[in-house]
Amino acid sequence: MMSALPSRHPDHSPLLPHQSPPLVVPSPTELSSDAAAPQTAARPPPAPKAERPRPKIRSTKAALTIAPAAVSRLRALLNGPTPQLIRIGVRNKGCAGLSYHLEYVDQPGKFDEVVEQNDVRVLIDSKALFSIIGSEMDWKEDPLSAKFIFKNPNIKDACGCGESFGVAS
């Protein structure tokens, strides 16, 4: 038969209606390896560390320097009706092995090196970077021709006409 008296806790102190029985947490020595036995909750995993943004490594010296005559010629070429960029690369060609190649592109490639000097931007193809690095680009006009010329300290071999070059590997 149910009694109207408040129930009693095992230590025989009466429980009031708004109280709940005390929580008993077993000590680590009392824990059972049996899966059916009550277990304590595992610790929560540590909070993830905030990732720092990776620093961008930029060289202090440009891969290519552009002479004033070349800057003015590039500015004239780039201010055309359809604004584009000029990519400088090298191709396997000529008697010495490599030849400079210039082309118009709409946007830089994923690994292209961007060289900006006097508000003129040119791109260096990533495959040509080691052949071109440290060079100076200039514009030369004479009565028979007008062309970009490159003064490249990496050249170890060049053909007689000056159209192709080779670098030490």
Short synopsis of the structure:
The protein is built from 2 helices and 9 strands, in the order E-H-E-E-E-E-H-E-E-E-E. It is mainly β.
Q: If you had to describe this structure to a student in words, what would you say it looks like?
A:
The chain is mostly beta strands. 9% of the residues lie in helices and 29% in strands. The chain contains two helices and nine strands. The protein has helices at 68-78, 129-132, and strands spanning 64-66, 85-92, 98-105, 113-117, 120-124, 135-141, 146-151, 155-158, 165-167. Strands 3-2-5-4 form a four-stranded mixed beta sheet. β4 and β5 form a beta hairpin. The longest helix is centred in the middle third of the chain and has 11 residues, at 68-78. The relative contact order is 0.15. The mean pLDDT is 79.
Fold blueprint:
Layout: E1 64-66, H1 68-78, E2 85-92, E3 98-105, E4 113-117, E5 120-124, H2 129-132, E6 135-141, E7 146-151, E8 155-158, E9 165-167
Parallel strand pairs: 1-6, 2-5
Antiparallel strand pairs: 2-3, 4-5, 6-7, 8-9
Helix/strand/pairing category = mainly beta
Major sheet characteristics: 4 strands, mixed
Distance between the termini: 100 Å
| Beta-strand content bin | 25-35%
Average pLDDT, rounded to a whole number, is 79
**How helical, in percent, are the residues?**
under 10%
Radius of gyration: 38 Å
Q: What is the β-strand count?
A: 9
Q: Strand order within the widest sheet? A: 3-2-5-4
Identify the overall geometry. Answer: elongated
Order of helices and strands: EHEEEEHEEEE
Oligomer: single chain
Enumerate how many helices there are, as a single number.
2
Low-confidence runs (pLDDT<50, min 5 residues)? Answer: none
